[in-house]
Design brief:
There is one protein chain. The chain has two domains: 188 residues, Rossmann fold, CATH 3.40.50; 113 residues, Jelly Rolls. It is α/β, with parallel strands linked by helices. It is elongated, with a radius of gyration of 29 Å. It is built from nine helices and 20 strands.
Length: 389
């Protein structure tokens, strides 16, 4: 038997535990950290200690003394010199460990490293040294350490024209700028920011156990640079045709979400073509090769629309304003069916093949109906045949 009180009590307990936990996030102004911080707050973690370049040494020491969990995301990956990799990445990690030792901390530590090898040797070497420094401390102190070796991470709030080709492509294409693809066949290993954040959240625990574990994000995607470019270019083209991409494809769905986050706010709104006549109007809203077409139909009082049938095309009608009569007649048996539907009780009416059908506004105000078809309209093969009900 479902017991809502037990579930509510468990959720309340989780929220109380989260509220007590103090989490230190270094590199708090970075791409991954921004996404992580907002999700930590969504989950009820309010005691967040945020460390960035503006944090004073005294404040960092205070944060180390107070924290229960350390999420170490700070680091540089586009320095002015190779030496800066070691000064910033290795040096700062050593400083953190020194403060942890001074405070005799036994805590949960998450460290963002890299999966890459051979392309940016100094960066990779600095991350490996950071891993070793934290491993030694975890074994010495009995802390738990989770080393996340990350590939190319993409998603909202990533800085374009910096170190993410996805962010750069999304920004440039959404702003009408050119993109440059030196070698379209280069293979990329991509992970989505939400998947990274969820993996981070899964290892934040109250009970600290002595463990050193390497973590790779389970939802990783193999794709070429050229394929990424073509996908993002297509998003801008589909937008003009009212098309949405193949949202059933997990990577395409996440790339599309990322692309839209780079569109300027003044371009969020766009006009639809309303096909208006004396009867009302018909407006196409969305097209998709995956799920067909969605349209908005407006009919004046007393107006009848439809009186046609289909071989293969099926539809669904949802009246969201007004009251309507929807009638069917079987093309072979002549059987008649009628439904009266209105906005007082939202009901979907399926329009099957082999029935001629119509919809009549029997109210005194405009009738507004959302219509879905399982295929987009094809002028060469409309599959629509006139026949009065």
């Amino acid at each position: 038997m479902f017991n809502g009180n037990i579930l509510c009590a468990k959720e309340t307990e989780k929220m109380e535990e989260a509220d007590k936990l103090k989490i230190l996030v270094t590199g708090s102004n970075g791409f991954i950290a921004k996404n992580l911080i907002v999700e930590l707050r969504n989950k009820g973690y309010e005691n967040l200690l945020l460390c960035n370049r503006d944090t004073t040494p005294e404040k960092l020491e205070q944060y180390i003394e107070e924290c229960d969990v350390l999420i170490h995301l700070a680091g540089v990956n586009r320095p002015s010199s190779e030496e800066e990799y070691y000064i910033e990445n290795v040096g700062f990690t050593k400083k953190i460990v020194r403060l942890l030792k001074n405070n005799h901390k036994r805590i949960c530590i998450l460290f963002s490293s890299t999966i890459h090898t051979g392309r940016h040797k100094c960066y990779e070497e600095s991350k490996r040294q950071g891993e070793k420094i934290l491993q030694d401390y975890a074994k010495e102190s009995g802390s738990s350490l989770f080393i996340f070796r990350l590939p190319n991470v993409f998603g909202k709030w990533c800085r374009p024209n910096y170190n993410s080709v996805v962010a750069t492509f999304c920004y440039n294409i959404s702003h009408g700028l050119d993109i440059k693809v030196n070698d379209p066949d280069v293979q990329m290993n991509l992970v989505y920011i939400d998947d990274v954040v969820n993996e981070f959240l899964s290892v934040i625990v109250l009970e600290v156990e002595e463990i050193v574990k390497y973590v790779e994000i389970s939802h990783a995607y193999q794709i070429t640079v050229g394929e990424v470019a073509q996908a993002i270019i297509s998003f801008g083209q589909k937008h003009k045709r009212l098309e949405v991409p193949q949202v059933g494809n997990s990577l395409i769905k996440k790339l599309y979400s990322t692309y839209l986050s780079y569109v300027e706010p003044e371009n969020y709104r766009y006009e639809l073509k309303m096909n208006i006549d004396a009867r009302g109007s018909f407006t196409e809203f969305l097209h998709s090769q995956d799920f067909g077409q969605v349209s908005v139909n407006i009919a004046k009082p007393g107006i009848i629309k439809g009186n046609h049938w289909h071989h293969t095309k099926v539809e669904k009608f949802l009246v969201v304003k007004g009251i309507a009569s929807i009638k069917f007649r079987h093309m072979i048996t002549g059987k008649m069916v009628e439904y009266i539907v209105s906005d007082r009780k939202l009901e979907v009416v399926d329009i099957p093949v082999g029935y001629t059908h119509n919809i009549t506004n029997i109210g005194i105000e405009d009738l507004v109906t959302i219509m879905w078809a399982n295929e987009t309209f094809d002028r060469d093969r409309p599959d629509t045949y006139y026949e009065e009900v």
